[in-house]
């Protein structure tokens, strides 16, 4: 075909490149994960996540308003629970006056159009740092599901738009759907962490919430491999996503992001619901660390990774870069 076909014609300058660009990014592609703590006017940076803070509810609300003006339309929220409130049942997770429930209410009151997606999993509330209730040395699947239903209903009562189960118990999407419907919340959606891998990329997140699996008085699994997926597996991710859609998930998620883009594309091709990708804490930390040393160009790497996640098939990207990327996109 050469020289009739010269592919470089479509790359001659930025104008022609912009005409033929197959993928675009905009602030509404992003969801911003936020860490909430008790207190007032409290804001502390997470050492392994420069630029990311634990904030009290009042400062969270201020930040959410700013995110909205930047074009961001969704936040995932996580809470840092006081040690004295942790146990093996996770019961603080459905306290109607708990930190999460107060945070949801405050955000929805101040910024009603922001989509609020609280995390549904017991790890921030568990004395063992696990996503479920420990019985006989393992996570009790079905008992955990019933706890998650109570938790999700309390989030809906506080005003959540969606609930986002990140626990990886079997059958929890169906139980959450049934539970929300029975409680009178048919319009509260479920964004399921469907293909969530047991990944070392979650390290900085566990620092942020003090939620890593820990030594205990009873036998507990030392990691999350009995519920999160083995990163050697691909077909299993499709099975997980298809089952969650069948159980009633409105959106599915693949997590982590960059190292898992093959999975993102396969899941995207297999399901007929939006696919979310979580660009997780460790991915954020790597870019921050390398660019602090001057080894990588921060903004360029950030935009390249976000664009590649979108190109792989993400409808939404949950990313700690949401605000910085939105500011950059709005400048153009
Ligand atoms: C726990 C949860 C984790 C993340 C989101 N929800 C960590 C884990 O499974 O241990 C990780 C997010 C990130 O690393 O940014 N339910």
TrEMBL record:
Description of how the protein assembles with itself and partners: Homooctamer.
Catalytic reaction equation(s): 2 5-aminolevulinate = porphobilinogen + 2 H2O + H(+)
EC class name: lyase
GO molecular function, one term: porphobilinogen synthase activity
Listed name of the protein: Delta-aminolevulinic acid dehydratase
E.C. number(s) listed in UniProt: 4.2.1.24
Protein species of origin: Flavobacterium aureirubrum
InterPro entries for this protein: ALAD (IPR001731), ALAD_AS (IPR030656), Aldolase_TIM (IPR013785)
Lineage: Bacteria, Pseudomonadati, Bacteroidota, Flavobacteriia, Flavobacteriales
UniProt entry keywords in alphabetical sequence: Heme biosynthesis, Lyase, Porphyrin biosynthesis
Tagged with keyword Lyase: yes
Annotated NCBIfam families: PRK09283.1
Protein family according to the UniProt entry: Belongs to the ALAD family.
Pathway(s) it belongs to: Porphyrin-containing compound metabolism; protoporphyrin-IX biosynthesis; coproporphyrinogen-III from 5-aminolevulinate: step 1/4
């Amino acid at each position: 075909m050469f020289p009739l076909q010269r592919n470089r014609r479509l790359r001659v300058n930025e104008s022609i490149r912009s005409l033929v660009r197959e993928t675009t990014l905009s602030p509404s592609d992003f969801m911003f994960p936020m860490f909430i703590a008790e207190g007032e006017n409290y804001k502390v940076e997470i050492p392994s996540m420069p630029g990311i803070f634990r904030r009290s509810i009042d400062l969270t609300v201020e930040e959410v308003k700013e995110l909205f003006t930047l074009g961001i339309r969704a936040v995932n929220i996580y809470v840092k629970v006081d040690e004295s409130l942790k146990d093996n049942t996770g019961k603080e997770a459905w306290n109607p006056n708990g930190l999460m429930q107060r945070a949801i209410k405050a955000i929805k009151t101040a910024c009603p159009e922001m989509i609020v997606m609280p995390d549904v999993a017991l790890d921030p509330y568990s004395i063992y740092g696990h996503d479920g209730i420990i019985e006989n040395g393992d996570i009790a699947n079905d008992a955990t599901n019933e706890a998650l239903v109570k938790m999700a209903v309390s989030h809906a009562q506080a005003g959540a738009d969606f609930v986002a189960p990140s626990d990886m118990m079997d059958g929890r999407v169906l139980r959450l759907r049934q539970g929300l419907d029975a409680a009178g919340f048919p319009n509260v959606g479920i964004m399921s962490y469907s293909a969530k891998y047991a990944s070392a990329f979650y390290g900085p997140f566990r620092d942020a919430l003090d939620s890593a699996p820990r030594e205990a008085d009873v036998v507990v699994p030392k990691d999350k491999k009995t519920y999160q997926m083995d990163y050697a597996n691909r077909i299993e991710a499709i099975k997980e996503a298809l089952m969650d859609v069948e159980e009633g998930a409105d959106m599915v998620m693949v997590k982590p992001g960059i190292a898992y883009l093959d999975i993102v594309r396969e899941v995207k091709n297999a399901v007929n619901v939006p696919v979310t990708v979580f660009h997780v804490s460790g991915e954020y930390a790597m870019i921050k660390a390398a660019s602090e040393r001057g080894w990588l160009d921060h903004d360029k790497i950030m935009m390249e990774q976000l664009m590649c996640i979108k190109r792989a098939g993400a409808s939404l990207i949950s990313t700690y870069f949401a605000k910085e990327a939105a500011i950059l996109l709005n400048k153009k």
